[in-house]
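Anyone up for a design puzzle?
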């Protein structure tokens, strides 16, 4: 008897684009096909930055429709992942109240100080295990409360962005665990909302639907949508709907719990998997975070400003009339002088859109370094500095967890930048295994497969990933030279 060929459709919303990826799984290997790609551009209106949510839901429907029209209407399941922290609010009639804000909006300015007046910083970390980032949901919500936002006053339900899209598809309101965990409002130790802390912050505690875990079914495609799109009432699965949660699920390690990963894209999310949150003083000192993963695991990680610095530099040069490919920029960077200029990738001035090359030059002026004038020098400065930030993070992970990590697994689109992969091996003095590229979509898909009984568990899922996609290995080189430069980076960036 022939094995069933499963078809799973993953929607992955990244910082600049979204994709509908169709996976065909024969029980041994996954084959991926991009069915639909679309831009995911935040919209600035009257000084605020929003998700273009209705257009994006239209794009989800287009992804399903393209499957139906190309002979793949027999989809077994659908799953959606986005980045964390952002949300939509529904009123008493389940109507969306306004446009969801984008995390790079400035409304959270000043909210650190406001929050810490009400609840000590240490108590917030102990309650949630989440690192402090200006865009966290808790600070977005506090901003709405402080400013007497009428949208919050009318809200009866909060849905994080993947939950909101799932609601649009199914009519079912659920909160998926991995994305809830990123909010800095969820107590992952006790697996519940941190209600005591939220009450002290004067943030509502009664607007969050029931928690659902990765691999559970949200519902099925509403009949009117199924009829509109020419498909059946497809199951909609709660995947690890925080995109990093999906990416980590795809890391091709087998029978090994002690591994370190980098989910490399606009952000670099670098961390390890734990069975329970680590809310030690050391974790707080390093600003490590405890986010949810598949099987209620903990993604103990550090948010690092990743390829955003290169992407934003490239956008600036395009604005100036010169559009260079990433390969061309990498070639120029390889030809530039090594270790001439170094930066802290997480410097606050680098976090928002703008003239990134000039901000980098200004950082170098302030720190008394050679100023990178050429495009190649700017890109090399970013790449080397990211690699050193990775090394510092690994050392902190080993310090806090007591484990040793000999291999760095890099997944995601950032592995296309071979220079950064190579520099990471050199800086960390560890072997780098890079792949798969489409990590988030693949992690989304394997959780769907687990939900539908096509894959037994996460370990088997990772075996399937390893069997299906190529892995590139980078071994460290020139260790003494990189050691010396690392000391220079620390002296400049860790003051």
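Challenge accepted. My sequence:
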């Amino acid at each position: 008897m022939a094995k069933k060929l499963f078809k799973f459709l993953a929607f992955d919303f990244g910082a600049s684009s979204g994709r509908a990826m169709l996976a065909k799984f024969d029980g041994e290997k996954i084959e991926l096909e991009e069915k639909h790609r679309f831009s995911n551009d935040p919209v600035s209106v009257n000084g605020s930055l929003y998700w273009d949510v209705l257009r994006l839901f239209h794009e989800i429907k287009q992804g399903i429709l393209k499957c139906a029209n190309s002979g793949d209407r027999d989809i077994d399941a659908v799953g959606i992942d986005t980045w964390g922290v952002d949300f939509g609010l529904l009123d008493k009639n389940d109507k969306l109240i306004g446009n969801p804000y984008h995390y790079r909006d400035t409304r959270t300015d000043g909210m650190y100080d406001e929050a810490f007046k009400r609840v000590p910083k240490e108590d917030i970390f102990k309650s949630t295990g989440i690192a402090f980032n200006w865009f966290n949901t808790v600070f977005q919500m506090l901003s709405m409360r402080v400013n007497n936002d009428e949208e919050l006053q009318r809200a009866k339900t909060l849905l994080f962005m993947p939950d909101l899209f799932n609601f649009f598809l199914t009519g079912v309101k659920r909160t998926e665990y991995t994305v809830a965990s990123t909010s800095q409002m969820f107590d992952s130790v006790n697996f519940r909302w941190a209600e005591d802390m939220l009450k002290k912050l004067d943030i509502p505690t009664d607007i969050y639907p029931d928690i659902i875990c990765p691999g559970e079914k949200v519902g099925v495609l509403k009949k009117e949508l199924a009829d509109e799109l020419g498909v059946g009432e497809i199951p909609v699965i709660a995947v690890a709907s925080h995109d990093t949660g999906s990416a980590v699920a795809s890391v091709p390690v087998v029978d090994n719990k002690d591994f370190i990963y980098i989910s490399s894209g606009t952000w670099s999310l670098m961390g390890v998997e734990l069975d329970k949150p680590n809310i030690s003083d050391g974790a707080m000192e390093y600003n490590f975070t405890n986010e949810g993963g598949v099987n209620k695991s903990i993604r103990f990680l550090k948010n690092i400003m990743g390829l955003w610095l290169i992407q934003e530099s490239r956008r600036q040069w395009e604005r100036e009339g010169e559009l260079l490919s990433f390969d061309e920029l990498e070639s120029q960077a390889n030809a530039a002088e090594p270790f001439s200029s170094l930066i802290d990738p997480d410097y606050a001035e680098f976090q928002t859109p703008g003239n990134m090359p000039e901000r980098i030059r200004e950082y170098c002026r302030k720190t008394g370094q050679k100023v990178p004038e050429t495009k190649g020098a700017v890109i090399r400065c970013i790449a080397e500095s990211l690699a050193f930030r990775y090394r510092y993070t690994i050392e902190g992970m080993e310090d806090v967890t007591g484990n040793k990590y000999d291999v760095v697994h890099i997944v995601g689109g950032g592995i296309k930048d071979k220079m950064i992969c190579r520099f990471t091996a050199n800086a960390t003095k560890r072997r780098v295994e890079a792949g798969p590229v489409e990590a988030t979509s693949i992690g989304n898909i394997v959780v769907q497969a687990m939900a539908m009984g096509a894959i037994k568990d996460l370990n088997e899922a990772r075996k399937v990933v390893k069997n299906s996609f190529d892995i590139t290995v980078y071994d460290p080189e020139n260790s003494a030279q990189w050691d010396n430069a690392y000391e220079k980076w620390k002296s400049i960036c860790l003051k």
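A detail worth pointing out: Residues 375-401 form the longest helix (27 residues).
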